[in-house]
Amino acid sequence: MLMTNELEKAYKFIFDETYRMWHSDLTKIFRIGTRGTKGGCNLSSCILVLIGIESFSKFFSAKRKDANAFADFIDSYFPSEYHGKMLKIYFLFRHGLAHNFYPKSDLNRSNAATVTFGVDEKNRVVSLSRLKRDLDGCRKQLLHLNPTSGKPYVLVPQVLFLDTVNVMKNLKITIKTDINLQKMVIENHRRIRKILSHRV
Q: Cβ distance 71 to 154 under 8 Å?
C-alpha cells in the first residue's frame, strides 16, 4: 500500500531518523560496556533506552501526558512481563534522572526499593549477542519490575533495548497496513511538529 505524503514524512522521522540514531548509538554503547568493569555504561544506556521509549510512545499512543503515553505504549506493544509495571519505573528512573540527577527511591527512603541494573558475573554489561540467544528466558530471569518491600527494581537496559527493537520492527511493518495506527501517527506527528516549532 502506498503511504500518503504526510504519513511518509512521519514514517521517515520516526524510523529513518529518530529510531535509527537511537539504535546505532545504543549498540555502540553496549559494545563499549562489555569491555568495562563494574557495570560500565549501564546508567547511560538505561537513560537512553527509556528516553527512546518515551519518544516513540508519543507517536504510538493516544495518551497525551508523557508518563501515560510511556506506560500505554509498553502495555500495548511489549511482552507481558512489563505490563502494568513501567509507570513506576518511569517515575522512579526517568523522572528521577530528569529532576534529581539520579533514580528516585521508592517512598523516598534510603532503605526502600530503588532501581538497580542487571550485570553479568564479572560486573560487566551483558552482551547483546548473549541475550539474543534466549531473550524470553533472560527477561523472565533478570528483570525484577515488581519487587518485594525493600528490594530493588532491577532493569537490564540491553533486555529493554532488544524488546524495544522488536516492537519497533513490528510497528514498522504494521503501520503500512493498519489505517487506525496511521491516523494516530499522523495526528501525533502534527502535534509534535508544532511543539518542536520547526519542520520534522
A: no
By the 10 Å C-beta count (0-12 exposed, 13-18 middle, 19+ buried), 5 is classed as: exposed
Q: Which strand (E) or helix (H) includes residue 160?
A: helix 157-174
Q: Which residue ranges make up each domain of the chain? A: 5-196
118: CB partners within 8 A, 6+ apart: 126, 142, 143, 154, 155, 156, 159
Query: Cell 502495555 belongs to which residue?
Result: 75
Max CA distance (Å), the chain: 56
Question: And the C-alpha cell for 23?
Answer: 539504535
Q: Are 118 and 154 in contact (CB under 8 A)?
A: yes
Q: In the structure grid, which three cell numbers stand for residue 37, read together?
A: 568493569
Residue 106 corresponds to which amino acid? D
The CA distance from 75 to 175, in Å, is 18
**What is the tens place of the pLDDT at every residue in 102-132?**
565 555 555 455 667 766 656 666 778 888 8
Q: Which three cell numbers stand for residue 95?
A: 523522572
Give the residue from 113, 59, 61 showing the smallest Cα distance to 88: 113
Helix (H) or strand (E) holding 117: strand 115-117
Q: What is the pLDDT of residues 127-178, one digit of tens each?
A: 788 888 999 998 988 888 888 777 778 888 889 999 999 999 999 999 999 9
Cα angle value 22/189/17 (rounded, 5°): 25
β-pair partners for 4: none
